[in-house]
Specification:
Largest sheet: 3 strands, antiparallel
Strand order of the largest sheet: 1-5-4
Protein name: Cysteine-rich hydrophobic domain 1
Distance between the termini: 82 Å
Order of helices and strands: HHEEEHHHEE
GO cellular component, one term: membrane
Radius of gyration: 40 Å
Structural class: alpha+beta
Number of helices: 5
Strand content: 5-15%
Keywords: Membrane, Transmembrane, Transmembrane helix
Organism: Sparus aurata
Helix content: 25-40%
InterPro entries: CHIC1/2 (IPR039735), Golgin_A_7/ERF4 (IPR019383)
Length: 198
């Protein structure tokens, strides 16, 4: 038997010799200068964020309330129908709708008779004044439209914007002729689809 100090162990031929620890570190960290560098990871969710202008918005066609009166001055009828449209069922109470239309009709009732009188006077004196006598009725009609705009804005701020509706006075073609008339347009405010919480 050989003495212990002369005994040598041989590794098998197929076994690999382990590299020194320094070489292992150089494989894991090729450059020590990059060791403490903080890299910003790109968030994949940010790529899928879409601006609100490009989101699909669903809103039904607006409701058109046409004039129902027997007198029309420059496209503005002397009253609107108070009948509740069925498309607004579940959106607004019929009583609230009727109250709003009644307020508009009260404004028209107060202003339009004066406009009609000025229109008749303007037509009688039109030849003598070369059409200048129609200016008062044009200004009065504009003032009436402005007061209805203010009334509808007040109604919108008071109630209808909270219900997802917007009322406005708009100019549209008559159903029976090519003439223009003023109608109350009840628009549905668009609802944006919610893809992720705030």
């Amino acid at each position: 038997m050989l003495p212990l100090h002369k005994l040598r162990l041989r590794a098998p031929a197929h076994a690999s010799v382990r590299a020194p620890a320094g070489d292992v570190m150089s494989v894991l960290l090729p450059n020590m200068a990059d060791f403490d560098t903080i890299y910003e990871l790109e968030d994949e969710e940010d790529e899928h964020v879409v601006s609100e202008e490009h989101l699909p918005r669903y809103c039904p066609e607006p409701v058109i309330m046409r004039g129902a009166g027997h007198i029309t001055v420059f496209g503005l009828s002397n009253r609107f129908d108070t009948e509740f449209p069925s498309i607004l069922t579940g959106k607004v109470a019929p009583e609230e709708f009727k109250t709003s239309i009644s307020r508009v009709n009260a404004c028209l009732k107060k202003n339009l008779p004066v406009n009609v009188k000025w229109l008749l006077c303007g037509c009688l004196c039109c030849c003598c004044t070369v059409g200048c006598s129609l200016w008062p009725v044009i200004c009065l009609n504009k003032r009436t439209r402005r007061s209805i705009h203010k009334l509808l804005e007040w109604e919108n701020n008071r109630l209808y914007h909270k219900l997802g509706l917007h009322w406005k006075l708009s100019k549209r073609k008559c159903e029976s002729s090519n003439m223009m008339e003023y109608v109350i347009l009840i628009e549905f405010l668009p609802k944006y689809p919610i893809f992720r919480p705030d």
